[in-house]
Amino acid sequence: MASRLEDVILRGTRASQPAATLVSPGTLYFVTLENVLERSNGTIWESYSGASGGGGGFSLSNGLLIGLEPEEQDVFSYIPGPTGPQGPAGSAGSSSVTKVTVDVAEAPLEGASTTPITLVAAPGVNKVIVPVAWWPELDLVTVYSNNPTWALRYNGIAVDLLAQYSMTTNSVTGTKLMSGVSNNPTNTLMVYATNDPRNKALMFRLNADLTGAGVATAKIHLMYGVIDTF
Fold first, then answer.
1. Strands in 94-158 per DSSP E
2. Is 139 helix (H, G, I), strand (E, B) or coil?
3. What is the Cα–Cα distance from 67 to 61, expressed in whole angstroms?
4. How much is the pLDDT for 204?
């Protein structure tokens, strides 16, 4: 039975080369790390990639055996040439979501119902800020006499977005986080004819000004993206 090509045309490192007595006479073996081709005579491996024109041998160039007929090159053309240099590293990916933290001092915090606080400036023509998540953090130094809720809005649009947060208590001092209360998701719907969110700043507000003799500051943590619209 005729030998298969994969049985008589071999390649690999010198360490993985089989003994010449274990393969059929005439078997070719390409030593990858040395870039040489050898032929088994049934006893030893003989060089098969000698200098061009030297006693019927063949030279190896760019992975091809010089000295073969064109149709024979197709059989041996799978033998690789030297490995080329590594290409440059790809660029780092970028995220379309931005995180921002806004520090709010006592006076603007107490008046955030009357004067909402800008978290993200207007993004530009036909662009809309899309809040992904937010979390307010309150440092209550002394108590207030009311517990307003906290919310996000687009500048000039009287519709709250995402979740509203409640102070939950006005009597516990020290740093603490707000507790969340889910808002009706239909409140996020903007009808451009009446509530156009394009090129509008994103604001933080309270539903009532803080009252009493309390002292507090806050951090507003926000993750958001900006999308292009019509």
1. 98-104, 117-120, 127-142, 149-154
2. strand
3. 11
4. 93
- 176 is a domain residue: yes
Alpha-carbon distance of 113 to 31, in angstroms, equals: 79
Q: Are 150 and 178 in contact (CB under 8 A)?
A: yes
Answer yes or no: is 83 within a domain: no
Number of domains into which the chain is organized: 2
51 & 104 share domain:
no
The amino acid occupying position 94 is S
Give the tokens for residue 118: 């800008």
Task: In whole angstroms, give the CA distance from residue 42 to residue 39.
Answer: 9
Q: Do 221 and 101 touch, CB atoms closer than 8 A?
A: yes
Identify the burial level of 43 via C-beta atoms within 10 angstroms of its C-beta, where 0-12 means exposed, 13-18 middle and 19 or more buried.
exposed
Residue-wise pLDDT for 116-165, tens only, equals 999 999 999 999 998 888 888 888 888 898 888 888 999 998 888 866 78
Sequence-separated (6 or more) residues with CB below 8 Å from residue 46? 38, 39, 40
The rounded distance, in Å, linking the Cα atoms of 104 and 117 is 8
Residue 109, number of CB atoms within 10 A of its CB: 24
In a shared domain, residues 141 and 185: yes
